[in-house]
Amino acid sequence: MNRRSALFVLFAMLFFLTGMVFSQPAMMRQLLEIGLPRFDVNAISLLSDNPEQTRVIAYIELPYENLQFVRSVRGYEANYEVDLSILAGPDESSPRVENRIWRSTVIVPSFELTNSRELFDISVTYLTLSPANYTMVATVTDLETRKNSQLNRTLYVPSYDLGGLALGDLLLAREVTKTPTGAFEIVPNVDRVIADDDEALFVYYEVYPGVIDTIHVHSRVLDSRGNVVFEQRRTVDAEHPVTRDFFEIPTDSLSAGAHVVEMQVQAGEYSTLKAAEFSLRMGGLPSTVPNMETAIRQLRYIASNRELDRMLNTNPHDRQILFNDFWAEMDPNPDTPGNELMQEYYNRVFEASAAFGGMRDGWETDRGEVYVRYGPPDEIERHPFDVDSRPYEVWYYYEGQRRFVFVDEFGYGEYRLMSNLWQ
Question: How far is 91 from 137, CA to CA, in rounded Å?
Answer without folding.
Answer: 9
